[in-house]
Write a structure and sequence with these properties.
Order of helices and strands of chain A: HHHHEHHEHEHEEHEHEHEHEHEHEE
Number of helices of chain A: 14
Largest interface: A-B, 74 and 80 residues
Low-confidence stretches of chain A: 1-18
Strand order of the largest sheet of chain A: 2-1-3-4-5-11
CATH class of the largest domain in chain A: Alpha Beta
Shape of chain A: elongated
Structural class of chain A: alpha/beta
Radius of gyration of chain A: 26 Å
Number of strands of chain A: 12
CATH architecture of the largest domain in chain A: 3-Layer(aba) Sandwich
Helix content of chain A: 40-55%
Mean pLDDT of chain A: 87
CATH topology of the largest domain in chain A: Rossmann fold
Strand content of chain A: 5-15%
Oligomer: homodimer
Number of domains of chain A: 3
Chain lengths: 351, 351
DNA sequence: TTGTACGCGTTATCAG
DNA sequence: CTGATAACGCGTACAA
């Protein structure tokens, strides 16, 4: 999918295409002006009379003219498109509710400017080569990166390349990267404090992947809350944001800590896995063990029991990322990075 | 003034960008050949000696050269990118499990050829104007359209424009459009037959939107199965693929048909809504009323009770759509449309 | 305010 | 098999 500079022999792609796209020359001729004047009128250039502009506008709509992006890009050295980079093509990421919100928010931010969104799903093995080359070589004007892991070269390399880019979720590598994030430490605290306030004393956690900031930050929130309350913080099992991983971690916790009365699980998908394990073990939720998830995914509400969870303003985050990038691209507003938003607790039956 | 052949960019968008992207001329010079020869070598043209090709290859890798897409596009009149068109930007569609599978499958189909995927989310009001214009004016080489409704101008207009396009899900308008689909009639039948076989006799249905083929086809499958069994087919309520809509439809059914002992709900999201209503009405699932959903979404497994549902091979469908489009674009294999795949029943506790 | 002329990086045509 | 050279459609100094 990413251009590596090798292609098959040329092929007659436009065969059968009847509709001839109008060119700027035709617009100019119809409007009775020169091509450069038409260009200026269309691009809202400064020195053009109202009458001329009107004539050009009329010609544009009559012909249904749209500037040829390739030609424009060739001279402006811009592509008018940005990449949404997802360093893992697994269905897992795509079906994550997080992803939907991201696209939705990003689209919203982009709809004002007319930037196109190019989806770049990269297999981890290719990130270092194809993906980075693609991003560096002027195919896009900027990039938004989600789901970044510590090992990924992306943050560091993008920073070096100078390509305007914004991360969704603080990257653990690439110290000067711009990013927007939700305060995951606060989120972990929110969940854990809720458990403490409802009288739980033996509170475990299932973490996310610890090579992602979302993983370490939520863990830290849990840790800090327990430390402040003077409660034990040794019941930790690590997961990977999948249902199966959550189940495995929950089993591990049950084996090692018979007495636990609550679990903070760092994602709803994992929490659902944990609920299954608890049910199998004959434990009642929330009677015996309270459970709090994270993400406020659709399945949180329909889980049994319905899952108390932490909601992140995902779409707002993506929108902020998009706006940040656009502002960097147009050099307009001096948006500052990082942008940090706040999570919310959604209380349901499970805790 | 002396022209050194390389001028500063008009707008300083690339400011701070240290890495200058290499051009074909530089590759040619380094390889000691002319630009045309280098081009041929890179594009695997027919008349080029092995030695030359090797030299060019070496130069390419040394410089990290990638063809400038804009320049190439300008002359080939191709963009090497295709659009995934989603005529409703609602988070609803994006968070639908359907969408994740679509992207994933499409990416898989495209990864062989090096086509870029451009995401085009269109507000319904803009489809007729912005979106169509964008698609028609050569910004992309082809389009894959999902979630098409009867009223949308897309199918008809794309057909007229001659832009190679493939629909995922049979469009109700645009009779000659190419598409891939899952056999939704068979799916509706599968679900309903299962209910009949397990002894249910008063089987209602909650339909999807009836301006989409998925809606009407699943309804028809339900209808046909009941007709074959000589059972009544008057308990129909229409939904819109949302949880809330499913709940509303379920209430309507309960009001009108006190005696129903089963419901085929045309999507899992709606089925979850229906489950809530049934529980509120004090009805046991599957004791009093059996429920079958559709989609095999993640929340189907975690619903209570776990939802029996119909699984569509969504990713395979998207992959087929991608391959169909690619074959059209390259003029290679004579893939035939429509491609119709088969659904599967996933039996769980709810029926 | 408008028009002229040139260059952006690549592929395609046509001689050698 | 290779190398000049002419497009491709557009934006913009510069001259008028």
């Amino acid at each position: 999918m990413i251009d590596d500079g090798r292609r098959a022999a040329p092929r007659p792609l436009t065969a059968g295409r009847e509709h001839v796209v109008p060119t700027l020359d035709e617009v100019a001729r119809l409007a009775g002006v020169s091509r450069s004047t038409a260009s200026r009128a269309i691009n809202r250039g400064p020195r053009v009379s109202a009458a001329t502009r009107a004539a050009v506008d009329a010609a544009v709509t009559e012909l249904g003219f749209t500037p040829n992006r390739a030609a424009r890009s060739l001279v402006t050295r811009r592509t008018d498109s940005i990449a949404l980079v997802v360093p893992e093509p697994d269905e897992r990421v795509l079906s994550d509710p997080f992803f939907a919100g991201t696209i939705s928010g990003l689209t919203a931010a982009l709809s004002a400017s007319d930037l196109q969104l190019v989806l770049v799903l990269a297999r981890p093995t290719e990130v270092a080569t194809r993906t980075l080359r693609y991003l560096r070589n002027g195919h896009v004007d900027g990039a938004v990166v989600v789901s970044h892991h510590r090992g990924d070269a992306l943050a560091v390399e993008l920073e070096r390349s100078g390509l305007p880019s914004v991360f969704i979720g603080r990257p653990l590598s690439g110290p000067r990267a711009e990013y927007v994030d939700v305060d995951n430490v606060a989120g972990g605290r929110l969940a854990t404090d809720h458990l403490i306030r409802s009288g739980r004393r033996r509170i475990a956690t299932v973490t996310g992947p610890l090579d992602m900031s979302a993983g370490v930050d939520r863990l830290r929130g849990w840790h800090d809350a327990l430390a402040d309350a003077g409660l034990p913080r040794d019941a930790v099992a690590s997961g990977d944001f999948t249902t199966r991983g959550g189940a495995r971690a929950a089993r591990e916790l049950l084996d090692r800590h018979r007495d636990l009365d609550a679990v903070f699980v760092a994602s709803d998908l994992m929490a659902v896995g944990a609920l299954g394990v608890l049910a199998d073990a004959g434990l009642d939720v929330p009677g015996d063990v309270a459970v709090v998830g994270y993400d406020n995914a659709a399945l949180a509400a329909s889980a049994s029991p319905p899952l108390t969870t932490v909601a992140s303003p995902v779409a707002s985050m993506a929108r902020a990322a998009g706006e940040l990038l656009v502002s960097r691209l147009t050099g307009s507003a001096p948006c500052v990075s990082p942008v940090i938003l706040s999570p919310d607790l959604v209380v349901r039956a499970s805790a």
